[in-house]
Amino acid sequence: MTKLDIRKYGDSILRKKSKEVSTVNDDVKRFAQDMLETMYAAKGLGLAAPQVGVSSRICVIDIDPDKKSPIIMINPKVISGEGKVVDQEGCLSLPELFAEVKRFSNIVAQYTDISGKNKKVEARDLLARAIQHEIDHLDAKIFIDYLPDWKRKNMEKEIKRRKKKGEW
Ligand code: CO
């Protein structure tokens, strides 16, 4: 397995809509394993392909504190959502920056798994949040897009400051 480079906010690939995966071949399988390794090494709960420079609709998630429940989602889609809940959110592409984001508390999602099978999952709370966050990446959306202008501008200022210091 290979640890991949995580792209940070400001990288143009994070603003590109990802393409559907047509077949789950060995390359896709290997890539998904690399994504998992990269996510675990960075201590993240989720990672989407564009965050490692690949514009494909693939994401990995593991909200288990013991890191024993990896989920690999290919071409994932939220098919229904209900309830709204606000909670803290972060992103490996925006290290150490957190903000409150409103999301569906309960969702039903569908995706193709690593063996090519179609799956449907009912998720709530943190898992539901993680799935919505990662699918957003595939649609070129980033969690700070949901923030009020003043809050987002503050974050962008902080990012600029870190860039200047070579910390970004
Ligand atoms: Co993210």
**Bound compounds:** cobalt (II) ion
Radius of gyration: 16 Å
Number of helices: 3
What is the domain total for the residues?
Answer: 1
User: What's the CATH class, please?
Assistant: Alpha Beta
Protein model, in words:
- The chain is an alpha+beta fold and 168 residues long.
- The chain has one domain (12-164): Peptide deformylase (Peptide Deformylase), CATH 3.90.45.10.
- The chain has helices at 26-41, 125-138, 149-164, and strands at 46-48, 58-61, 71-91, 94-112, 118-124.
- Strands 1-2-3-4-5 form a five-stranded antiparallel beta sheet.
- The longest helix is centred in the first third of the chain and has 16 residues, at 26-41.
- The structure holds cobalt (II) ion.
- Residues 91-93, 133, 137 line the site of cobalt (II) ion.
- The site of cobalt (II) ion (CO) has 5 residues, from helix 2.
SSE layout:
Blueprint (H helix, E strand, L loop, with lengths): L25 H16 L4 E3 L9 E4 L9 E21 L2 E19 L5 E7 H14 L10 H16 L4
Bound molecules: cobalt (II) ion.
What would a concise description of this structure say?
It is built from three helices and five strands, in the order αβββββαα.
Features:
3 helices; alpha+beta; globular; 32% strand; 5-stranded antiparallel β-sheet; 168 residues; Peptide Deformylase; binds cobalt (II) ion
